[in-house]
């Protein structure tokens, strides 16, 4: 079992208990939302990459620690990214690169329409049923450096499906050595690794080499958590417990699975607890009192929703401004690079995207905090009214709320600005400097379209969380009052709601259930 799996299983247990509790309370809207959140958190695929220099023992480690056989070649070096999937249907899929040009070329090596000269994408898979180690060796590695370089230029990735001991839903990625710059290493750094939840780094020795230090200092890895494995390839199947080999080297700002899940669980538990409190309080009041409270709340909620709509409009404007700025900054830096390439093109483009990405994410975090404050201000009169009439506290005090959920939602979406580099760099690696200049100019013109694709999840998720922040709280109280109007409080119902509320509090606090 991988180190974070226990945390994942514990969170799955808390979500299951939460769903069971709200179903027992007949809070079917919260149940439906919790199921959706559970699917988003647990239903997806987890990806873990093992990285390091050639001959550091990556393939040997995966063979001996995860697989039930030595199917990955342990000599010669891995030439292309290899994904290991847990599946009873044993097969191998080879995904080749396809080079195609959708626009006619002009005399200076550019396509008309401002596109780059050569588009490199993944083609249809070639499938080999029941592959042998020799089949894997032929498509993953090679006996000579030239053979491995040919594979790196022609094969985007290889997927191997085996019945392994790895948890279901986990993909383990074996990667090429981090030293040479070719299509395989570019795809690994800018497409494979940003899409992975964890990166495990296997050094050659306890003292890092210059290539290893350069890789770890890459702007594309800024803000990523890197777990360090013990150096060396002497793994044995008997040495399979977690404590003997897995060790966490460092933690940083990147969201772990638990950090992504925590604000979601707490928010749903808070809404359900608030519903319990509202219903229990309202059931002790007469039908006339409930109707009066509903009327007062309805008038205030209408005013809040009108203002919330205005704020949502401003939020969309703010997000558009961020997206536009991101496009302009990257475009300007690429244009500057095209005017006189003083650095290697890889370094120039990576720095441009990395700097702009860091700036944009910092702006998104600032915007999330700003709108969290606005939501508190907007709901303040409503909170006072609910506490006065029902004695219910509707302000969650144990977590950051909206800000944390926005960042968690963005992390779950696995937004990858570096996919821009993965799309454009493979077609430039073998170009002459004069051609690179022309292609950089074309790339700069195409930046807005690429940034639009990268930024789209932010424009969808941020407003959705804002809507849930405002309407979610108001709806849960109103529905609690509505349930109370159906009849006076019965002892069994009150006892049930009190028990459920206590357990919901334990879920939010991560206490033993």
Q: What would a concise description of this structure say?
A:
This protein has 15 helices and ten strands. The chain has helices spanning 5-24, 28-42, 58-65, 133-140, 145-154, 183-192, 210-216, 242-245, 257-282, 287-339, 345-390, 402-412, 419-424, 433-484, 491-509, and strands at residues 46-51, 82-86, 91-100, 119-122, 126-129, 155-162, 170-174, 198-201, 226-229, 246-247.
Show unreliable segments.
1-6, 102-118, 233-255
| Mean pLDDT across every amino acid position | 79
Tally of helical segments: 15
- What is the makeup of the main sheet? 10 strands, mixed
> Distance between termini?
23 Å
> What's the Cα radius of gyration?
27 Å
| Count of domains | 2
Structural class call reads: alpha/beta
The succession of helices and strands, N to C, reads HHEHEEEEHHEEHEHEHEHHHHHHH
The counted number of beta strands is 10
Helix content: 55-70%
Strand content: 5-15%
Shape: globular
Layout of SSEs?
Blueprint: H1 5-24, H2 28-42, E1 46-51, H3 58-65, E2 82-86, E3 91-100, E4 119-122, E5 126-129, H4 133-140, H5 145-154, E6 155-162, E7 170-174, H6 183-192, E8 198-201, H7 210-216, E9 226-229, H8 242-245, E10 246-247, H9 257-282, H10 287-339, H11 345-390, H12 402-412, H13 419-424, H14 433-484, H15 491-509
Parallel strand pairs: 1-7, 1-8, 2-6, 8-9
Antiparallel strand pairs: 2-7, 3-4, 3-5, 3-6, 9-10
Helix pairs in contact: 1-2, 1-9, 1-15, 2-9, 9-12, 9-14, 9-15, 10-11, 10-14, 11-12, 11-14, 12-14
Mind explaining what this structure looks like?
This protein is of the alpha/beta class and 513 residues long. It has 2 domains: 5-41 and 255-509; 47-247, Rossmann fold (3-Layer(aba) Sandwich), CATH 3.40.50. It is 58% helix and 10% strand. It is built from 15 helices and 10 strands. It has helices spanning 5-24, 28-42, 58-65, 133-140, 145-154, 183-192, 210-216, 242-245, 257-282, 287-339, 345-390, 402-412, 419-424, 433-484, 491-509, and strands at residues 46-51, 82-86, 91-100, 119-122, 126-129, 155-162, 170-174, 198-201, 226-229, 246-247. Strands 1, 2, 3, 4, 5, 6, 7, 8, 9 and 10 form a 10-stranded mixed sheet that branches. It is globular, with a radius of gyration of 27 Å. Residues 1-6, 102-118 and 233-255 have low confidence and may be disordered. This is Dynamin family protein. It comes from Desulfococcus multivorans DSM 2059. InterPro entries: Dynamin_N, P-loop_NTPase.
